[in-house]
């Protein structure tokens, strides 16, 4: 099966600094791929390129086998790539339904006048939240009063409704309490169960081992290792991140 994303030889330079160098990575639908690495390893830069937020300096991205060149996050969204940023970009004063449909309200024209299809939107949100098994008792309540985990659920529902087939989450649980983190990890698995591809960036090795099917370790802009979860251990991954692992040392010498 063709991977949903094939990244080949991705490089990114900021002036003289090589933030990414020759990164090859595949991402499959129905799979949670974790990106790991020390601060500055290039993880965020890599997902920003996938999300159309910045162009690569070198290399090629293929989506379902076709080369793409995203000029903006909007282009990436049209190809089914949704990013959930830490800031989440939700509107505090709007309710859950309004946030899911923000800027793309379902409109029906009646005698030439647009009418928001409130009932249709509400039903769609109910369905999404149920499928995600997200606990939001009142989708007509303001998002401003909700917990971090509930907000993540709203952002994920929004991404799914926009036709997201790859959902990218860059440190989604960094600011969350333990119970909220559990809920977000559950959402991550729900996305994969819906055949989405998920890229999760996290520093929490325990979280990563709980939800990821596969892990890729970045170091100084290079992908130095890729492991199936079943074929590795937290100790090995930590050693790869810190540079203590022989594979990391080999990569350092080759750089
Ligand atoms: N817009 C930018 N301008 C200059 N340097 C950048 C920019 N974005 C990232 N970098 C640099 O690229 C490297 C990789 O950063 P980043 O992708 O944010 O790493 P990570 O997410 O793994 O912590 C770092 O050295 C960082 O300082
Ligand atoms: Mg980062």
Automatic annotation (TrEMBL):
UniProt keyword Nucleotide-binding, yes or no: yes
GO MF terms, alphabetically ordered: ATP binding; ATP hydrolysis activity
UniProt cross-references to InterPro entries, sorted A to Z: AAA+_ATPase (IPR003593), ABC_carbohydrate_import_ATPase (IPR050107), ABC_transporter-like_ATP-bd (IPR003439), ABC_transporter-like_CS (IPR017871), P-loop_NTPase (IPR027417)
One Pfam family it belongs to: ABC_tran
All residue ranges annotated as the ABC transporter domain in the record: 5-245
ATP-binding among keywords: yes
Protein name: Monosaccharide ABC transporter ATP-binding protein, CUT2 family
Record key words, sorted: ATP-binding, Nucleotide-binding
Organism: Arboricoccus pini
């Amino acid at each position: 099966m063709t991977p949903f994303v094939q990244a080949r030889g991705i490089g990114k330079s900021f002036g003289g600094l090589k933030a990414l160098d020759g990164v090859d990575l595949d991402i499959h639908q129905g799979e949670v791929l974790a990106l790991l690495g020390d601060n500055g390893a290039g993880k965020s830069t890599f997902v920003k390129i996938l999300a159309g937020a910045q162009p690569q300096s070198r290399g090629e991205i293929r989506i379902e086998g076709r080369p793409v060149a995203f000029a903006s996050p909007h282009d990436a969204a049209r190809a089914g790539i949704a990013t959930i940023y830490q800031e989440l970009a939700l509107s505090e004063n709007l309710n859950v339904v309004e946030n899911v449909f923000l800027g793309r309200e379902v409109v029906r024209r009646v005698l030439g006048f647009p009418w928001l299809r409130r009932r249709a939107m509400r039903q769609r949100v109910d369905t999404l939240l149920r499928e995600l098994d997200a606990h939001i008792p009142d989708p007509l309540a303001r998002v401003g009063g909700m917990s971090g985990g509930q907000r993540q659920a709203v952002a994920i529902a929004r991404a799914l409704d926009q036709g997201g087939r790859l959902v990218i989450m860059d440190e989604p649980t960094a600011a969350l309490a333990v119970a909220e983190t559990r809920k977000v990890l559950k959402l991550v698995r729900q996305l994969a169960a819906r055949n989405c591809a998920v890229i999760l960036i996290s520093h929490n090795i325990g979280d990563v081992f709980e939800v990821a099917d596969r892990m890729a370790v970045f170091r100084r802009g290079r992908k130095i290792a890729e492991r199936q979860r079943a074929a590795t251990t937290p100790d090995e991954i930590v050693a790869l991140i810190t540079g203590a692992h022989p594979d990391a040392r080999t990569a350092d010498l080759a750089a």
